[in-house]
Structures are given as structure tokens and as C-alpha cells.
Specification:
The complex is a heterodimer of chains A (383) and B (101).
Chain A: E1 4-11, H1 22-37, E2 44-48, H2 52-56, H3 61-68, E3 75-79, H4 85-99, E4 104-112, H5 118-125, H6 141-156, H7 164-174, E5 196-198, E6 201-202, E7 211-220, H8 221-227, E8 232-241, H9 256-269, E9 278-280, H10 286-295, H11 326-329, H12 337-349, E10 363-370, E11 375-382
Parallel strand pairs in A: 2-3, 2-4, 9-10
Antiparallel strand pairs in A: 1-7, 1-8, 4-7, 5-6, 8-11, 10-11
Helix pairs in contact in A: 1-3, 4-12
Chain B: H1 5-9, E1 20-29, E2 42-49, E3 54-59, E4 71-81, E5 88-96
Antiparallel strand pairs in B: 1-2, 1-4, 2-3, 4-5
Classes of the chains: A alpha/beta (383), B mainly beta (101).
Chain lengths: 383, 101
Amino acid sequence: MRDVAIIGIGQIPVGEHWASSLRQLAADAAHDALNDAGLKHVDALYVGNAFGAAFSSQTHLGALVADYAGLGGPEAYTIEAADASGAAALRTGYLAIASGAVETALVVGVEKSTDTVGDARTLARNTSLDADFEAAHGATQTALAALLMRRYMHEYGLELSAFEGFSINAHANGARNPRAMFRNTLKPGGFAKAPMIADPVNLFDSAPDADGAAAVILTTLERAVDLVPQPVRITGSAAATDTMALHDRANLLYLGAANRSAYKAYAQAGITPDAVNLFELHDEYTVIAALSLEAAGFAARGEGWKLAQDGALSLNGRLPISTFGGLKARGNPAGATGVYQAVEACLQLRDQAGDNQVVGARVALIQNLGGLGGTAITHVLQV
Amino acid sequence: METTRRQVEFQREQFTFSGTGEVYSFTTLQQAPEGFEEQAPYVLALVKLDEGPMVTAQLTDLDGPVAIGDRVEMVTRKLTTEGSRGVIVYGYKFRKILPRA
């Protein structure tokens, strides 16, 4: 296997892009990344997208994006793994370069959530649940997260306020990020009073659906050092799956796939969790942030929430997370989210993160989940 | 008939559950997907069946608060309708087991 590096990054602001179509969002991010790498063409395009069919009545995104972005007809197709589609596309690109089959690959994550609104969007998003045993009973991803969170609170004896720190941190970092969907800060004490979506998950707990597109360009480390001044190495890449339905987990309060993919990625990179300088995790709900910290070895089981109590997760803390706002404040453009995580980690490692910079960042961990951990994909990025 | 290796590996056995269990976790949905919006707000639960497995299902016939550990039993109810003139989809929900008088 060949060593792989990221040589170009691109992203558009996350938000509600009523005036742009899916293809426009994707092409803008792609061009941004191509310009950053100083390239015009690539050998392959991998599009991370979760809900193109359900939101936008559009599949066949490989050809669509390659055509609209004017890429000259490369190999191209969509990679889908629910909200982990972006990281799945990144891993596909990584494997293509590492294997020797492809020399340069463009990975684009894109989602156009606002093509569908209201109850119809909730129904569309529900296509990533277990259709027969979850969605058919009126479940939603938020409701399933609520079931998980209530049980977590019950077993560990917690109040809602225990989770507040995750959202306050995400919004504090989002407020500094010009591309974040939400740039407001949250006042301590407000979290527990927010309107409920599915109790105990409230409006300040769950990440917003968003439009967005982000892109990275991959090549071999050998070529990368000649092409750009600051290539970012992908030193670990791993994916794992868990039971599709939440109710089939042997232990509901343990993200097994997240744990296995993280430790496979650590082993490949030859590091342990204490080497990680920042962690872009899948904070779609605060309880998932807590469980992700536990799964990746930063907290014991039942103690992930404690890290959110004392500033350990802030930009100058022991383990900065969600450094550009995370899913909660930057926004969650579903199939694009995993690629945003990669772009943001590269900005940190290239010392280009501006007001969001984690000083001296050399090792970044990024983890993207599909469903509530049914899919987990972890990458280690280093300079 | 000859049994192939694949058939042996995937052979499944019919098993009848008692239909009773307890509430492992629950939530009240305020934002329902299309097809369920008329029922909102409704209570969705993880029910741990007495035989061990867990299922996701709605709680029905509620006239008071729900708590983790509540004893429940399965009943057949309407889940949704496929469109305004479509077929009615029936399935399982759970209701609290009332203490016997």
C-alpha cells in the first residue's frame, strides 16, 4: 500500500442555499479544492452523498458532478453510508490511491437538505433507519437518539445540564467560523430550557440539517511533496459497522463500531489516543459526542460527559473537539459532513485555522458516523 | 430433499414471544415524519421483552406518565396509512399492564 496525502481542500459555507442546486454546491467545493492543489484534472471523483434520491430526486451524482464541474470525464460515482457518506467517500479515495489504481482523486461531499422541508424531510431522512423495524413504527433518528440519551441519563444518574457543555463549546467555535451555519453563542443555563424535539433531545442538543459541500484532493505522499508546500498525510483510515437497528445492540450505551474503527486507525498510524491534538467527532447529538469520546478512548464508559464540564474540549483545552463548530454549530450537511471534518482538520494541521486555530496541532482524529453508529469511519491526519 | 450448507447456516426457527416486557427507554416525539404527523405527539419506546430481545415500538392507550421499568404488553394497532386513500398498515404497539384489581 502506498502512503496517501491530502493536497487540496475546498468548502462552501454551510447553511440554507435556496439559490443553489446540488450540482452547483458540489462544483463550487470541487473547484475550490482543485485551485488549492493547483490542479485542473483528476483521475477519479468520489462523491459522498446520503440523501440525493430522497431530498433532491437525484442519483447518479458521479456523472452529474464530474460533468457540471468540467472534470473531463474521470471515473466517478457516489459512495453512500448515511451521514457517514462523506468519510466513506474519503476512505474510498484513500483506498484507490493507496492501492496504486489511481494517481489523483477528488473527494466531494455534498448534500442539499433544503430541497425538501418539514415532515417530508423527516420522512426522507428516515430512509437511513431500519425501515421495517424502526421507521415503520414512527421512529426518527432524533427519537432514537432520545431513547439512547434517556437511558444514558438513567444509568449514570445525570440531569440534562450535564450535556450543556458540548453545545456551548460547539457554538463558541462556530461563532468564530465564517462558514458555520450558526454563529451565535449559547449562554450557560439556556440549554435545559430549550424546546423539546423528542425529550430529552431539545433544539440546543441536536445538529441542524443543512446544505453544504466540501472537497479534498488526494494523491500519493511521494507526489504530494513535489506538488504542494504542506501536504497532510492520512496515516490511519478504518471503517466498521454495528447493528443496523439501535435495539439490537448488545450494549446500547457503547458505540462498538466507533471503537473498532478508531483503534484500527490508531494502530495503522502507530499512535495511541494521547497523541491526538484535536478530535472532529460526530456531535449530531450531545449524547453521541459523549459516547464518541468514550469509544475513541478519551473517557471511561459513562464518563464522556465529564469532559464537557471543565473546558477540556475547548480550542485551548486538553482535547479540542468540534473546532469549527462541529455538526451542532457548523451544521450537518449529512453526506458532506465527513469531508468538512477532513477539510477542517487540514486547516488546523496547516496552521490556517485563523481564529479557530489549535496551537501546535500535528495529529488530528476525525470520525464520521452513519445512523447512531451503525457505520463508523475514522481517519488520522498528520503533518 | 438435500440440505445445502447455506440452508443450514441460515435456518431459522419459529419462536413465539409472550408479548410482555418492560420499558427500557422512551421519548415523546414532537416532530413526526410524514405519515405519522396526525399522531404527534406520540410516545416511542425501547421495550425489553421478557425473553431478552429488544424492540422499538410506540406505547399506546396511555393515560398517565411513563417510566423506565414499566411493565407493558403487546397489542395490534394501526401504525399508519399509505397515503390519504391507501391501505392501513397494522403492527405491534405496547400498552401498560394494569395491576389486577
